[in-house]
């Protein structure tokens, strides 16, 4: 399966993925996951100052559309190989017990694949691109060569994201493997703030202030 895993990665990257990883996390009887990473524009994110921009909202949607397309293409390759697949939409909340969550946590699959870690901003921090990414996940029953979670956090705890959040929605806690499901974010406070303040920009579904602060910090650290 090593060869197929590598071929799948090369195929997805040739079609627009910025990075691809593989993990052993399950969705029902599908025991392997493919994580698709699409990098966002540094320039677009740099323009988010106190509020999302119209361009950021469009860019966010475009990246999600690419991820969903790549998820379908990935699934087609898996089916051709005799496997089953289940693509998790890039951005879709599922009504039910928790109205702010999707069908599965993209971040969890990405962390188990060893592509990055989770920051105090509750965002996935990619090992090269920091938080300037969107994620997708495709589950399959086809065995894949999987990665290993990173041992050190990519978040240095600077707290800039926590201080910058206008909704005070970030608790300031760090992700820990002892309690990986502990919440770092008051999702309701974040969502309510976006709906109250940014309905005219991103239909109340994007903000990006905490991404902006973290991307700047991440880039400064990389430049040191
Ligand atoms: S801004 Fe600082 S504390 Fe917040 S996630 Fe990024 S590195 Fe971590
Ligand atoms: S998206 Fe905005 S409101 Fe939500 S946690 Fe980040 S800065 Fe706060």
What is the gist of this entry?
This protein is an alpha+beta fold.
Task: Give a quick set of tags describing it.
8 helices; 39% helix; four-stranded antiparallel beta sheet; alpha+beta; 224 residues; binds iron/sulfur cluster
H/E series = HEEHHEHEEEHHHH
Count of domain modules: 1
Terminal Cα span: 39 Å
> How many strand segments?
6
Largest sheet: 4 strands, antiparallel
Mean pLDDT: 92
Radius of gyration over C-alpha positions, nearest whole angstrom: 17 Å
The amount of beta strand, in percent, is 5-15%
Specify the helix fraction band.
Answer: 25-40%
Structure commentary:
- The protein has 224 residues and is α+β, with helices and mostly antiparallel strands.
- It has one domain (2-223).
- Helices cover 39% and strands 14% of the residues.
- It has 8 helices and 6 strands; from the N terminus they run αββααβαβββαααα.
- It has helices at residues 2-14, 42-46, 54-80, 106-112, 160-164, 187-197, 199-202, 209-223, and strands at residues 19-23, 32-39, 85-88, 116-118, 124-126, 133-140.
- A 4-stranded antiparallel sheet has the order 1-2-6-3, sandwiched between helices.
- A hairpin with an 8-residue loop joins strand 1 and strand 2 (32-39).
- The radius of gyration is 17 Å and the shape is globular.
- The mean pLDDT is 92.
- The chain binds iron/sulfur cluster (SF4) (2 copies).
- Residues 165, 167, 169-170, 185, 190, 193, 207, 209-210 line the site of one iron/sulfur cluster (SF4).
């Amino acid at each position: 399966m090593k060869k197929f895993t590598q071929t799948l990665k090369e195929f997805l990257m040739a079609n627009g993925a910025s990075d691809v990883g593989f993990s052993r996390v399950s969705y029902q009887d599908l025991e392997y996951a493919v994580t698709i990473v699409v990098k966002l524009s540094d320039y677009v994110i740099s323009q988010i100052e106190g509020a999302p921009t119209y361009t950021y909202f469009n860019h966010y949607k475009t990246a999600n559309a690419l991820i969903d397309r790549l998820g379908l293409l990935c699934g087609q390759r898996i089916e051709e190989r005799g496997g089953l697949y289940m693509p998790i939409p890039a951005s879709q909340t599922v009504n039910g017990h928790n109205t702010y969550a999707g069908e599965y946590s993209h971040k969890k699959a990405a962390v188990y694949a060893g592509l990055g870690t989770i920051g105090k901003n509750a965002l996935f921090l990619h090992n090269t691109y920091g938080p300037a990414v969107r994620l997708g996940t495709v589950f399959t029953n086809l065995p894949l060569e999987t990665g290993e979670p990173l041992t050190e956090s990519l978040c240095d705890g600077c707290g800039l994201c926590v201080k910058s959040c206008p909704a005070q929605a970030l608790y300031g806690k760090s992700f820990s493997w002892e309690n990986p499901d502990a919440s770092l974010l008051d999702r309701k406070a974040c969502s309510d703030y976006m709906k109250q303040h940014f309905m005219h920009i991103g239909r109340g579904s994007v903000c990006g202030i905490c991404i902006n602060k973290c991307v700047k910090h991440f880039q400064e650290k990389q430049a040191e």
